[in-house]
């Protein structure tokens, strides 16, 4: 059975106290109620919370991820956080190319490409975000945009048998909107993504080592509509992952 990934993207939404409290509450809940088999739950807090959360989550069936990484190895790169440094703090996953970084910080597919390579080199799992804006969708460019993000982002990327990679399809226009995309559309898009991946990587790697997950206004009411579909390997959750009362029904729907 393939794992189902439930990834929390906490963005920059909480104070240190809030983030650590939610993590502690989650650990308590997991000890009491257990996570269903085959679920891979991962928390991605802001960088500064990684050391604290690494201590809280360790050994409690909850993985740790970062929300970004520098596109260079250890070097003169002020403000950067290296993939190797993330590994030191027990990170297993790294979100790369989130639309907020592409939009506000003008992150390019070429930067995303360098980051993916460094993440894999450190034996971490990249969660590569791709997605179209509302304007691109209206202009009929959705598929072309996604395919370009994949082709340029994955150029020269190789995933080995002992590595994993997740592709997160996140339509930019539904993120934080409260209204997820129609699950039928997500399913069709995931199929197109899978076809594109087969142009870059061997079929066995695509089926065994790569998951395609959906993100954008996932909540406890709609999570089942996505995860019941075999082509959707998990969800990337923002707003609804910030408190235990909203996140737990998603984890164990
Ligand atoms: P959302 O965010 O669940 O709040 O829409 C998802 C994301 O940005 O990854």
Question: Any overview of this molecule?
Answer:
With 253 residues, this protein is α/β, with parallel strands linked by helices. It has a single domain, classed as TIM Barrel, CATH 3.20.20. The chain is built from eleven helices and eight strands. The protein has an eight-stranded parallel beta barrel, surrounded by six helices. α1 runs parallel beside α2 and α5 packs across α7. The protein is globular and about 45 Å long. It starts with a strand and ends with a helix. It binds 2-phosphoglycolic acid.
CATH superfamily label: Aldolase class I
Question: According to CATH, what is the class?
Answer: Alpha Beta
Number of strands: 8
Mean pLDDT: 97
Enumerate the spans where pLDDT stays under 50 for 5 or more consecutive residues.
Answer: none
Which ligands occur here? Answer: 2-phosphoglycolic acid
Give me the number of helical elements. 11
- The class by helix and strand makeup works out as alpha/beta
What count of structural domains? 1
Q: Note the main sheet.
A: 8 strands, parallel, barrel
Coarse shape = globular
Instruction: Give the second-level CATH assignment, the architecture.
Output: Alpha-Beta Barrel
Q: What order do the helices and strands follow?
A: EHEHEHEHHEHHEHHEHEH
- Rounded to the nearest angstrom, the radius of gyration is 17 Å
